[in-house]
Amino acid sequence: MEIIYIVLLLVVIIMIFNLKTNSNQRIDKLEAHIADLTNTIRQYTLNRNNEPPKPAPRMDRPWEAPEMKQPEPPKPVPPAPLPVPKPVEPIPAPEPIKVERQPQVITDPIHRPIKTSDAPVPPPPPRKTYREPEPEPELSFFESHPDLEKFIGENLINKIGIAILVLAIGFFVKYAIDNNWVGPVGRVGIGVLCGGILIGIAHRMRNSYTAFSSVLVGGGLAILYFTITLAYHQFHLFDQTASFIILIVITIFAVVLSLLYDKQELAVVALVGGLASPFMVSSGHANYNALFIYLVILNAGLLVIAYYKSWRVLNAVVFGLTVIVFGAVLTSLTGPTYHTGLLYASILYLLFFGINVANNVKENKAFVASDFSILLINTALYFSVGLYLLTQMGQQDMRGPFTAALGVVNLLLSFILFKNKKVDTNILYLLIGITLTFISLTAPIQLNGHYITLFWAAETVLLYWLFLKSKIQLMKLCSLVVWGAMLISLFMDWINLYYAPGSYDRPALLLLPIIANKGFITTVVAAISSYLLYLQIKRDETPQVYGMAIPGILYQSMAFILLFSSGVLEINHQFTSRYPGTNLNILYLTLYTPAFVYLFYMVGKRVSGIALNWRVGAGLIALAIAVYLFSLPAIFTLEYTMLDNHKAATSHFAAHWVAAVVVALLFYQLIKIARAELDEDLKATISWILSIAIVVFLSAELCLASTLLFFGHGVTIDRIETVYIKVGLPILWGLSSFALMILGMRNKARTLRIISLTLFAVTLGKLFVFDIKDIPPAGKIAAFFCLGVILLIVSFMYQKVKKILVEDEAKKIED
């Protein structure tokens, strides 16, 4: 069993040392490049010594020229033929000269006379700036080790060799033990001696063979660890306390060696051995308090190392092993030890936070992805452990305060780091994001139902307000994310409150107070929150989040939809619960929809904060009218049900007449918008659509009124409708066409006159083709009399305004 332990530790050590292989190879490459560069510089220097003399220095840089004799003042020299070059001879060093702005003659290396200009000498060219080389791409194994023989000889063989050496020592010791060559003390002494010899040899070779010495030190430490373990378990030479102290001393010694040699792999071996020490001398009796104290002390030592050394691999390895050890112990905790586990989990959480930020803060370095990953994992694991332990302790009510407290802790940590002006801002954003996350999670963890929605509705507005004050983009992003979570929570509240299973079978159990209930109030608060968020987005100078534009109209529209939905859900629930089976909810919803749109539009015209442009206003009005017209069949059915079955009082139908008045007002507003904002081509199309809609609206309303008025005394609904369709509709359509003709003539609107004539034609066709059969004589007389009178009046009006029509047609032709 001990041999298996030795083999496992050796495998771990080999893996650790192999992490450094690529770094060593890159260092070797760098040294080779430096050697090549040195040789190049040396050859260039030798070549320069054999070159002919350089040209004379520029006269505008006397500080760069060698010492020269002052020449006599130059005299004008006529152009001379080019002299035959002479053999190059050494030129005596001239004395320094003073630069004067006058023509002068100097001699170049081949003795050619040159006349200088008195113009100012141009400035020297700018020096080239040094650019940092771009990082090399990651290479594959064979690309980074082109010389496979060298890799095997210098890196792989030494690791395999030390592993085989340790195994050989182990087999030798085992053989000696099996043959009783040495006693227990001698056996332990052999192990300590072998480990010490390996460490001593490594110390002697630390400068000339750095990588190999590190491997020897790791092997020596492994031998020492397992020798003491065998001394305790197998030979009982030391008690548990003494063995544990010796292992701690070995760990401290290994840490000192790692700092002395500046070797990260030695520190990894030391701390891995330190974490394994309690289990090496375990007696099978759990002492959680002592184990947690040891973990805290060990990681406190790691914090000291991390402050001076940027050894990220060490931090990651120890963090992972500590999590494994703590997780294994966590599953074995019992009731009395839950508080102890939560206490030490909190201490380890803070320690690992310090370990992963200490060196970066000290050296003002930028945080990398691995730093952020460990910080996030550390926070998530601690949060999970805290919730688990609080649940096990039966203190579920404390999970919300625990979550909020964790957010406050991260806020304090971000404030402490913020005081260091040179700290990487990314870590501040990370901590602020963690803070906002935990504050947002407090509501769903601690609260229930609609309280979560109310909490998030307030938080989303507060976060965007904080962004406007601090300009921290992360707060803006969190505000929008929380707003989305609020909507999801609100939809869940609607399902639970209004559409829970059995809501129609047992309405009394789900009956909510009118208006003053959590469903209506929560929806209204969510609408107000969305609108306030929209106002803050309007105040934002750059309504973007990480390069993506924020559509403010989305939040304004959602505020309107939520406010409208609050009334729809309330009306539907109250009438469905209080008047089951009557469909009165449809009646009052057809009143609520146009009334809401009309009031919202009229208030928006007077309040700038909710004002709508004419296109949006016209669209809302048209949508409300369309919903009303499409709901008319349901209204007809409801009226027949109320008259035949008396399931609900007929007085409720008064709500429909109020709705009809509101729809008439909406038609009026829509006509005003069309006349003021549309061009002539669109006006013609809209005139047709509005005329048809108004005629349909009046026809349906008059039918409902006649049914309600004449029902009873042996008259059936079918008979009333038949008479209305054959007599009432022709009269109504005739009057409508007459009204359209009057409007068309008064406003010189040719489209309205054409619509009027078209409606006249449809009315006459309907009257003579469908309505002349099976109608009472009185009905025929009334219908024909009214239509005849109307047609005569229309004909007279055309003759009366013939001049206007001619001028109108001429104007159209000219256009």
From TrEMBL:
Keywords attached to this entry:
Membrane, Transmembrane, Transmembrane helix
Q: Which InterPro entries match?
A: DUF2339_TM
Source organism superkingdom: Bacteria
**Pfam families, per database record:** DUF2339
Per the record, where are the segments of Pro residues compositional bias? 73-83
Tell me where the transmembrane regions lie.
6-23, 156-175, 181-202, 214-235, 241-261, 266-285, 291-308, 313-335, 341-359, 366-390, 402-418, 427-445, 451-468, 480-499, 511-533, 545-566, 586-604, 616-636, 648-668, 688-711, 723-744, 751-769, 781-798
Q: Does the keyword Transmembrane apply?
A: yes
Question: Where are stretches of biased composition, namely Basic and acidic residues?
Answer: 57-72
Query: Would the keyword Transmembrane turn up in this protein's UniProt record?
Result: yes
Query: Could you tell me which residues belong to the region Disordered?
Result: 45-83, 108-139
The identity of this protein, by name, is DUF2339 domain-containing protein
The organism is Mucilaginibacter gilvus
